[in-house]
Automatic annotation (TrEMBL):
Spans through the membrane: 46-68
Protein name: ANGPTL7 protein
Keywords for this protein: Coiled coil, Disulfide bond, Glycoprotein, Membrane, Secreted, Transmembrane, Transmembrane helix
One term under GO cellular component: fibrinogen complex
Gene coding for it: ANGPTL7
Cellular localisation: Secreted
Amino acid sequence: MATAVDPTIELTCLQLEDTKKRMDAAKSKHKTRSHLGPTARRRWKIACTILTWVVLLSLTAFTAWLYLRVENLRTEKGQLQSKVVDDAKTMVNLQIRTNRLSNQKDELAKRVTDGICEIEKLQNATKLLKTQLDSVSSQLNVQDGRLRMVQDRLSFIGGCYDCVVRDCSDVRTRNVLSGIYPIWPKNFTNALYVYCDMGPSGGGWTVLQRRLDGSVNFYRNWTEYKKGFGDLGGEFWLGMDAIYLLLSQNAYRLRVDMEDWEGNKAYAEYSSIQLDTERNNYRIRLGTFSGNAGDSIAGTNATMDYFTRNLNNMQFSTRDRDNDGSSRNCALLFKGGWWYNDCYNANLNGIYYRGGNYTDAVQDGIEWSTWKGWRYSLKSVSMKIRPANFVP
C-alpha cells in the first residue's frame, strides 16, 4: 500500500526553492554593484535623482494641465448648460409664439371664410335686388304705358265737358281701341276704371270678368268678390257692387266669350241681365239665350231629371257665404265664387287648369259644359255687358 504525500509538505518545498532563487539573485546583484566604484555609484545616484525629478516635474505639469483642462471643461459645461437653458427658454418662447401665430392664422382663416360667405350673401342679395329692380322697372314701364294710354283717352274724352260716359258703349262713340278707360256710372262718386272690349259684334262692351293665364286666384271670400280683385290689364273680377251699379242704370245684355286650348272660339249671349242688391245676395236674372256655345247658365241638365243645374235666378255664393240650392257648399267644393244651384253647368270662376282636360277628383275647372263637356278647363273666358239698345 503506497504512502500518501501531504500536499502542504510539497508546497513548503516549493516555497523554499523559490526563496533560495531570490536570495541567489540578490547576491548576484549585490556583487555587481559591489564591483562599481564610489564615483560610479555617485553618478548613478545623481542620474536616478535627476530622472526622478524629471518624472515628478512631468507628472506635476501633466497634473496642472489636467487641472486646467478640467476647469476649462467645467467652464464650458457651465456655458453649455446656460446655453441649453437659454435655448430651452427660446424654444418655449418660440413654441408660444408659434401657437399664437397658429391661433391667429386659424382666426384669420375663419374671418376670410366668413368674409367670403358674407360676400356671397351680398352678391346673392345684389342679384336678387337687381332682379326685383328689373321686375319693378318692367312693371313701371307697363304702368307708364297704360298711364299714357289713359291720359290720351282722358284728353280725348276731356274735350267733351257735357258728355256722359256711363259705360264702354259711350266710350265706343269716341274711341275704337280696346283698353282701360274711366267711366262715371250713375250714383258712383268717382271715376270707375274698366276694361272696354271694342272687338266683338261692334264693340262697346264693359268687361266684368276675364280669365287669361291663371295669374290671379279666383278662390276668394265674399268681401273680395264684393269689392273686386285682379288687374284690369290681365285677369280680374270687377266687383259685385260695381257690377250692380252698372246694371242698375240701364237695360243691358250679357255676352260670354270663350276659347279652348286648340284655338277654337265660341260665345253665348243673353238678351238681358239683372242683378239684385247685396241684401238679396246679388241674385241674377237672365233673358233669352243666343250663340254657338250652348246655354250652360240658364239651360237645364236634361240628363238628370230629378234636379236642375239652371243658374238663372240664383243667388251669388262664395266659400264663406253659401247661398246655393244644394245641400253641399258648392263654392267651397268647386273653388270659385258663382251663382251655383246644385251645383253648375258653367263654372267660369273655377281653378285655371292648363291643357284643357284634367283628371282631378273634384270637377272644379273653368267649365262651360254645353260646349266642351265636363272636365275641360277653358283657356280664356270673359263676361261683358252692353246696353240692350246699343247700335254699333
